[in-house]
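The instructor's notes for this session suggest beginning with a concrete chain rather than abstract definitions. Hand out the sequence below and ask the class to guess, before any prediction is shown, which regions might be ordered.
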Amino acid sequence: MKTIRAMALICAMLAAAAAVYVWSGAYDIGADVPHSRAVSRLLGTLRARAIAAHAEDIRVPALDAAPLIEEGAGHYAAMCSTCHLAPGYDSDETWQGLYPQPPKLAAGTALSPAEIFWVLKHGIKMSGMPAWGKTHDDHELWALTAFVVKLPTLSAQAYKDIVAKAPPDDMLPMPMPGGAAMPDGAAMPDGAAMPASGAAPRHRLP
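After discussion, reveal the predicted structure:
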């Protein structure tokens, strides 16, 4: 009984110390100061395990149809390229200022297609990753998933070409490198023309 009481007292003291530390504001929450190694590993493990567990039962449709990948390219250019960059677009002021820094998806990802879809739909707390499921339907998110899977195989020119052919995202303008919005019909770097809104029909999953 004394051992149990002692352990309970120690736990209470640790909890009180943690509460005092949090309330003091001593922990630097600024994005320009990285987490300690221990906190970073804890959060990384929590994130990886949570994504894997929640995505476990997701059924992945066929993602290799060219029109689906092209549609995803338009979503990626509008929704993702500022933070996750793109082939030939290796840095950005937004990317440099974010912490944790978003992965450069052109280099590939260890996430499975089901896990990519889950992250796109639900986002990740305190990371800057939005829950795109609030504004986009599952078909659009599977198109984006298909493109993220395809992205590491694309050269800088191939990326520009596929974005130029893509139907534009309905809700967001496609950004140019540097963050400026690209109007309908405007040219991308190196002269690839952006399609006008509604220029191409969307491929729907069966």
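Then share the key points. Helices lie at 2-24, 37-55, 66-79, 81-84, 93-97, 113-122, 138-150, 156-165. Strands lie at 174-175, 181-182.
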